[in-house]
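User: Hey, my collaborator sent me this sequence without any context and asked if I could get a structure. I don't really work with proteins. Can you help?
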Amino acid sequence: MDELLTQFLIEGRDLVADAHGALRALQGDPADARTIDALFRATHTLKGSVALFAMAPAEELLHAAEALLVQARRNGTAISERERSALVSVIDQIDRWTDAMEADGRLPDGAAALSRQLVQTLIEEEEATSVEDAAPAAWLAAMTARPQFAGRLPALGGTAFRYTPDPECFFRGEDPLGTVAAVPGLLAFVIMPNDAWPDMDEMDPFRCVCHVEGVSTADMDSVRAAFRLVPDQIALHPLDADTATRMEDGQGKRAATALLRVEGAKLDRLARQSGELAIAVNGLDGLAARAEPVDRELAADIRRTQTAIERASGALRASVAEVRLISLAPALRRLPRLARDVAATLGKEVRFSITGDETEVDKQIADGLFEPLLHLVRNAIDHGIEAPTERAATGKPGQGEVTLSIAPHGDRLLVTLRDDGRGIDPDLVRRSAIDKGLIDAEGAAALSDAKALRLIFAPGFSTTGQVSQVSGRGVGMDAVQSAIERLQGTVEIDSLTGSGTTIRIALPLNAITTRLLTISVGGQVYGLRLDQIAETLRMETQAIQAVGQGEACVVRGRTVPVIDLATLLGHPRARADMERLILTDVTGERIALRVDAWGERIDAMVRERSGLLSAIPAIGGTAVLGDGGVLLVLDLQELAA
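Assistant: No problem. I've predicted the 3D structure and written it out in structure-token form, which is a compact way to encode the shape of the chain:
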């Protein structure tokens, strides 16, 4: 792919996300000048970006959107709901065309006609002729994006000018640069192309294809006099002190937030190496233990050195983790547009909203979260939200609500998707699972409603009798769970028939290393993810009683089923006077797992299971220990299901 196009795809999508963020903010305060300015800047910069490619319909559409925003800024008026809705459609379409450029290198057929249609939704017919009238304020605002003017704006006012020489000016002996040089009080100017710069082999040296933008300390009449021979080629605008200050503030903010783009693979490699350093540090503990019987002083020195290296490697790992933090907004920018597309396809009225999408998470989490969330949103709209007539019959408003909220909680990221649709009937889930042979009738009847709902994550499960054009609630939900588990996360579901469904996803904020608790079962050592452990406790053996065909104990007045982990893994069961239990909530209900012993807590890089291990259930991955040994990491959610 062309390097310039690759850069456009990155920056264009960032600008689309910025524009959508401003449009969401305008829904709450349609007259907020700062938000309108932010939307204008994103729209104007997008217009300049698409002009570099064969995207004329996109440029025309953005020009019309820019003109609407210029009028609002000039007049200090609010953006109406009709205008905001039209602007949302424009940015959505630019997003689709950006995807088309990535896939095909060109806009789809019919883009020009669609652009004209969307322009009509932006501007009332009587306003359609005022697009060019907005140009002076537009080019003035565009100057705020040019670093050439940073620190060179008049402190006490002055004049900004835009000089567009006639293309044939050279044949008449005109000297555009000489004309500009004669401007009194000239502070700075920049030469810009009227359109995209032509290729060198297509460049006509006798034709002027650029214009000049500049600022002067002189008043408008004095500047106009310098251009008295070309009055039809000049546009002027007064600069007061407030305007200059706003322009300087905008430039200062852009300079302060300048970004260094780093290839993702380099960050991944840096994270992997910092994780391997943590593993190597863990190996010093075993070395100290081996040295203890031989030379106690040497063992103490090794442990002191280990502590120092742990401190340094921990700081390095924290720095690497901070570098890898990125906002979720760019990764999730397409969700609102896709939600609107799905709702329109199904003829449903849905209001989709996101909160907390500016939360910063590890790059790996941001990269992997979009696909499962897209599937969940599609399912929520397709099979969660009812048709308007059905909602009206049940007393609900015709417009359904789907909300996605994201928030950090400690070292975890909590993602919650809610809809106010029909919910999921656990009895229907049981019947569907029986019909598809996923469980027998006796097993289904024994399931609580919470566990029955988790059946939707079983491969091949569906409650629908026909294939949907968009999705099916439950169809492919196993893929959602697998994607979340690859990110070392967990997913829970809660639903109330007739009221809606809530899906909660918990993910690590730091994806470099995983905190593990080592345990001993049947003479073997395994690892358990700490985020899957609610607590550990010791209990006398006689406190565990037989209940039916299983066992249970009482923890703080609550009866908890007890499962012997050795039996699950095919190891001989050890007997002891004091049992060690690990309590977990990964199945939706609290259960206790009996283990022989628990060991240390370690930071390790957990790799996905692959090869032969991929066919073994309940293995969540592997981790390399400091002594070079391989630790099998168990997935409690799959093991205890």
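In plain terms: Confidence is low (pLDDT under 50) at residues 125-136, 248-258. You can pass these tokens on to your collaborator as they are.
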